[in-house]
Amino acid sequence: MKTSRILLLLFLFVFNSCSKEIAEIQEEELTTIDFVQQMAPTSSTYNLEQAMSDNGQLMTIAFNGLAFMTGNDGADTFFPPGKVADYFGFQYMRDIDVAGYGHNTQFLSRAANNVIDILNTEQLAKLVSLAKEQAPIYVKFAYNRFPLMDAFRRNLTGDTPEGSIGLSRERITAYTANLYEIDADLSYNRAVMMGELAQSLTTEQKEYFANMTFNDFNTWPDIAEDHELKRSMTNTEFVAVMTYASEFFSWYKGGLNADIYFCPERHGTYFGGFFLKDYPAMNNPDYFIPLNQTGEDGKAFLNTLTSEQEALMNLIIPEQKALLEELAQVREDICLEMRKALNGDAIDRALVYHLIERYGELDGSMSGLYAIQFGAIYKTLTDAQKETLQAIRNLDVVPDGAYRYASPTAMPIVPNTDYLFGIGDIPADAGSYAAPADFYN
Questions:
Q1: Which positions ≥6 away from 3 have C-beta within 8 Å?
Q2: Burial annotation 340-367 (CB, 10 A radius, 16+ → b, else e)
């Protein structure tokens, strides 16, 4: 009996010691995995389920709230051009890059430069021709974001028109439906052109792309920028060329799931979040945008709020859930239809335009919801809370003017936005205004 007890105690001691070692090894392995995933994300860490998750959405919206309440109207206007007509898998390719360069400023340029270098004269001419044709349309889309941003900031600061009870989500949704007709024009014609490019690839070109791995920046040759091509175009035209070239590679090498994917910050892009996150990367080729910035700053923003203020933020998530789910389905339908062009099949133009118009309505409804809740929270912030939020922002720079995508420009004059507060009739051209001549410069 005594011997049995001794054996039992010895067994428990060995078992506990082994368990402790196993636990320590597992903890070390988890730490290593977390580090590897942060430096070189895989498809398991970036997917649509994560992007649409309650926590992913809440942290992203909170980060936008921080940017909006601590920024200014110029910061709101900063918008990466690749977020327009983004149904071609580039964002997914960026987020899962195993080399860790997906959020480095060299990423897009290296993909684009390889495509431009390998295309023949006739193929490149197609890409350049569309860029020149669509450059004014790009500018029109950028300008028509400004009235929305004007109304959202008016709501934040309490500059609401007499007789209004606040922003009208119905009017905002109507506005963004018109805005996304421009997006549809850009998207459809881009898909047609890139489908023609894919069908015209030679055996040599296909072999070249075969050696470039979709999600590994290190397998892409370091090709110099085509300075002669750049000098022959305006900045807006050249940005379009680089966007199309990089997206051709991601579309050709990716798949439907890559096209459908969107990051959590893809929608509700009128609140300065991109400026806050991307400004340090501007003109800095060695800069890596921190992968954890949105989550950490979003959490810090929420921690600054009172329970009542935080409740206003939390109300957004259940209210937008059905909108977000429909948006994902609409996006899948858009991408499925446009991907036909890669196989040489015709795209149903009317269907694509209809779907993207609905996509715009959904984006507008969610954006209006964010703006209303941000305004309600901001009205109750104390001076101490505002100081804390400025410290969390940790960026003293705010623009003196505005941005046309990522290019500095003077703040343009925008039409009166009282109608977005439910006052008067909504203009027939709301969301598709002609941009002022000086906004193109």
A1: none
A2: ebeeeeebeeeebbebbbbbbbbbbbbb
DSSP 312-339: HHHTHHHHHHHHHHHHHHHHHHHHHHHG
CA pair distance 276, 66, nearest whole angstrom:
9
Distances (CA, A) of 159 to 165, 237, 291: 12, 37, 36
Amino acid at 350: A
- Tens digits of per-residue pLDDT, 229-274? 999 999 999 999 999 999 999 999 999 999 999 877 889 999 999 9
State the Cα angle at 429 between 427 and 434, rounded to 5°.
130
Query: Token pair of 80, please?
Result: 């990466």
Give 222's DSSP letter.
-
Alpha carbon separation from 418 to 2, 54, 151, 335, 430 (Å, rounded): 89, 33, 8, 36, 12
* DSSP-assigned beta bridge partners for residue 404: 407
225 φψ region: left (φ > 0), alpha (ψ -120 to 50), beta (else): beta
- The residue among 343, 328, 359 whose CA lies nearest residue 187 is 359
Query: How does pLDDT run across 113-163, given as a tens digit for each residue?
Result: 999 999 999 999 999 999 999 999 999 999 999 999 999 999 999 999 999
Q: Write out 421-433 in H/E/C secondary structure.
A: HCCCCCCCCCCCC
Which DSSP category does 435 fall into?
P
d(CA 306, CA 74): 28
